[in-house]
Amino acid sequence: MEHNDMDFEQLMDESYFLPNGAAKVALLEKAAELADLEGDVEAGYEAREALVEAASFGGFPLKAIVAYSWQLGQYDRNPEAFDSQTLMWNYKWIIDDVPSFAEVPTEQIFSLLEDLRRRYLEYGVSDRTYWYYYFRLAMGMGDMEKAGECLKQFRTLKRDSMSDCTACELDEEVHYLNLLQEDEKALKKAKPIIEGRKACAEVPEMTLPGLLMPLHRLGRSEEAEEMQRRSYSMLGNHAKFVRQYGDHIGYLSVVDPQRALPLLERHLPQAESAEDPVARMLFFWNAAALLSKLQKTDESVALSLPPSSSFYPLIDRVADLQGQLEEQAFAIASALDKRNGNDFHTQHGQRILAERG
Amino acid sequence: MSDSQEYRFQVNLSGMIDILSNHLYSSPRVFLRELLQNATDAITARMDVDPSHRGEVFVELAGEGAQSTLVIQDNGIGLTEENVHEFLAMIGHSSKRNGTELLGETSFIGRFGIGLLSCFMVSDEIVMLTQSASGGPSIEWRGKPDGTYSIRKLETSLTTGTKVYLRCKPDTDFYFEKESVELDLLHYGALLPYPIILSANGVEQQINPDVPAWILNPELANSYSDDVLSFGERMLGEKFRDFIPLRTSNGRTGGIAYILPHAVNLNAKRSHKVYLKRMLISEAADNILPDWAFFVKCLIWTDELQPTASREHFYENELLEQVRGELGQCIRNELITISEQSPNRLQRIVDLHALSMKNLAVQDDQFYLMIHRWLPFESTYGHKTLGELIDEKRTLYYTVALDHYRQLRHVASAQSMLVINGGYIYEAELLQSLAILLPQVDLRRLLPEDVSLSFADLNAEERSATLQTLRSADLTLQRFRCRVMLKRFNPEELPALFTLPEEAATLRSIERASEQSTQAFSSVLGSLSQSLQDGASSYSILYLNLNNPVVERLFTGEPTSRLQTLIEMLYANALMMGHYPMSRPELALLNQGILSLIDWSMGSEKGE
Q1: Using CA atoms, how far apart are residues B348 and B294, in angstroms rounded to an integer?
Q2: CB of B520 within 8 Å of any CB in chain A?
Q3: Model's pTM, two decimal places?
């Protein structure tokens, strides 16, 4: 069937079985457009509800924000017409997506967070999710002290119907310890995830790559090695895992740079078109570290990239490619830092380059 | 009863059972697998001592519903009294530290105990009678889930082997039904090299067929294809038409991959049946084949992989990675062979599993090269295989987004351009890498803005004659971030074509969402769109077609006072033709424009 000739229901059906990612997002966007052309708000809402999920978990945070904004506006205009449970639940993902974009000023981010808090209280749940997402926001914006305070608040409250699953919560706490460079504590915290006792749709996929360097730094090389293989094979080939591929490349750059090169070639085209600037930034740093490492050992290193990649002209000029990657990554970092009023991301980048390059 | 002694476990047994049933095993039904495993281990141990021994497992069901009982008897090596104390001690020892470490236990005796304990998931009392091959008295062991058990030496001597009695506990009678026991015994024991006899309602039957030679030596399978297919149907419950023999180079893992006779979706759970040392270990082992192999359902045996504690999956390690790689290689090689020997058969398989074939092709260049001619694509020349498209010997243009293809296909068709839709899953990636793999094919990526490549520019004379009007037209659409260009293109009935580069499309969607959203979100969207507006590609382009008589009239002579309205109407019309949802100001254009047209036409009737 030609996708151009499909009607709304066909597009929705077709998209239903696809994994979260570009193809699913494209079909749902088309469905939403069709609904808009028909002036069918209910259908437009249904398509966007699916779109928000596919985009949030498929690596398209901007598309998720746009679709959600539309939904929330429609809901406020006619709250009786829509299911508030899903709408409220999805708000969390949006809150998480927004700070990645440096163009959005701090006060706008926090006005969304306060909006979420107000709506959640009205919905009848506690502040637990508010504090938890405040914790995540603070981490994303490099305010580790605030993140710690939020974590304390969050821990005093009981789980409710808006709480993330326990595996996801644990994953974020592990992430927090990672950012604090508390390797041992992070690994201890992550134990239930590593052993498979805590898992969900995104965990351990999201967690394990971040534990490779901690394991390596603690001299637990065999575990790191086992985990690298396990984790990479779990990730498959999905644009949504750009950050995680970066972690793998960074780790391999330290222990076995030659093995990292195919990963770089495979995932750089995904990374450069990633909608999430933070994912792009982290991947670029790890990639740049690898290229610097390779040049130290092998002078003739060259890459294979598809011609459609914007880095294609640099495949034989690895030093220039490395420079480009660093420049773009630090540009994103400094825009974010400027907004956040600190130098968290820039420092993070320098640390990656120093450690893995 | 003088020889009978009361003992107490050094274990919180109910805690252990809880660990087993709630955290370790996926379902209580695995108790049967554990019992069969114990019987197998016992028979194997006896055959190590006496190679001429012929093993047999006898299962007997009696009673109905809540009164059901199950007896399983093997003629394996049996246990001495010392053995029984040993496994109980081992359980006690391990459970004092952390219940789960015991589950990694691999020694025969330790495993035996665990296997036995799993029966508490379905029975409140386990009675075991055993006679060791090494002599000594026959032993009776009775255990209860509260932690008490007794051991008794029997006066009479039983035949060598072990017999376990279970009485179903409330709400587990399902697991004692004949059909369910029969099915499980078949699935768990299909590859065991000795008979499993089930006796129920006075009828005895052998459950497992003689193990076919071709499954242990898969290279023989192609000579027995009818047998292979019917065995597959019995074991996997589907009627297959094609299969692929699997075997790793060291010969320690092998089996049959059946090609699914229907399309599967990408999220489908893979459910291969995997046998470890001839016993079914998993019906859901999803990590033994590469991800892309979801068009097959397999029967696989192995004696080299290490099971996880639950014995339902395999440890992800280098060995598994290697086995997975080799099994994937078998599938790939067989497909190559099919492509050479019977291309039509391959086309049938590819058509059914196009998505997974494309996924595989994305990950593996060699496979892609082999199969590319059979992969189906959507194009302005219709639905064709890539081979057919290449045989057209034209420039193959491809779009990387569904949206782009939609914008371009009508105009591209009118110029006889061959454009392939690369917007669907994996297709853009495939077309991109085709450029590297088959450099002789003239393959180019097409962006919405590129469609003008095939448009004819105006000559110098035309350009100067239309310049002034064009400038006014361009100015008119500035506020919609749209530029106006004048070209000549086919079809001439098309007055205008609207194209939307990626960034401009994002901006449009942000603006439209912002109109509908809440205040907090509108300001966030405003911030997000700011950085996009700076780029040149944030402008959409309206191409006007000078081949079209109406457009030609519009651009003849001096700009008319009506130009602005007419350009706005062409713009709105092009948006509608391209199925673009319109923003409020754009809808307003349409309304005002229509009113103006009505007004003008009435004026002209009155002879104004």
Answers
A1: 16
A2: yes
A3: 0.70
Q: Where are the alpha helices (DSSP H) in B398-446?
A: 402-414, 427-437
Q: Which of these three, B156, B183, B206, is where a domain ends?
A: B206
Q: Which of A1, A4, A119 to mutate to test the interface with B (most CBs of B within 10 A)?
A: A4
Q: Which residue carries 């893992």 as its tokens?
A: B253
Residue B188 inside a domain? The answer is yes
Q: Cβ of B506 under 8 Å from any chain A Cβ?
A: yes
Distance CA B282, CA B187 (A): 10
B100 and B222 share one domain = no
pLDDT of B182-212, one tens digit each?
988 998 999 998 999 999 988 999 998 888 8
* Tens digit of each residue's pLDDT (9 = 90 or more) over A159-180: 999 999 899 999 999 999 999 9
Quote ipTM for the complex.
0.90
Return d(Cα B244, Cα B240) in angstroms, integer: 11
Instruction: Answer yes or no: do B106 and B25 share one domain.
Output: yes
| Any domain includes B529 | no
CA distance B33 to chain A (A): 23
Residues B62 and B202 both lie in one domain: yes
C-beta atoms of B317 and A226 within 8 A: yes
Query: pLDDT by residue (tens digit) across A119-158?
Result: 999 999 999 999 999 999 999 999 999 999 999 999 999 9
Let me know whether B125 and B267 are in one domain.
no
User: Could B517 and A233 be called an inter-chain contact, meaning their C-beta atoms sit closer than 8 Å?
Assistant: no
Chain B CB contacts of A70 below 8 Å: 512-513, 516-517
Flag if A307 and B436 touch (Cβ within 8 Å): yes
Mean pLDDT estimate for chain B: 85
Work out how many domains chain B is built from and give that number: 4
Q: Sign of the C-alpha dihedral, residues A55, A56, A60, A64?
A: positive
User: Does the pLDDT at position B250 exceed 90?
Assistant: yes
Rounded to whole angstroms, the maximal C-alpha distance in chain A is 66
Quote the mean pLDDT of chain A. 92
Q: Is B463 on the interface with A (CB under 8 A)?
A: no
- The string of DSSP letters for A215-231 reads HHHTT-HHHHHHHHHHH
Say if B101 falls within a structural domain.
yes
CA distance A37 to A320: 47
Domain that holds residue B432: 375-452
State whether residue B321 sits within 8 Å of chain A by CB: yes
Chain B residue numbers with beta carbons less than 8 Å from the beta carbon of A273 are none
Cβ A3–B363 below 8 Å, yes or no?
Answer: no
B22 touching chain A per CB within 8 A: no
Tell me which of B323, B342, B361 is where a domain ends.
B342
Which positions 157-186 of B are in contact with A (Cβ < 8 Å)? Answer: none
> Domain holding B174: CATH number?
3.30.565.10
Same domain, B325 and B425: no
Residues of chain B positioned with their CB less than 8 A from the CB of A269: 432
The two tokens of residue B413 are: 């068709």
Tracing tokens 């790793």 back to the chain, one arrives at B248
Determine, yes or no, domain membership for B482.
yes
Distance from CA of A289 to the nearest CA of B (A): 25
Domain at B464, CATH number: 1.20.120.790
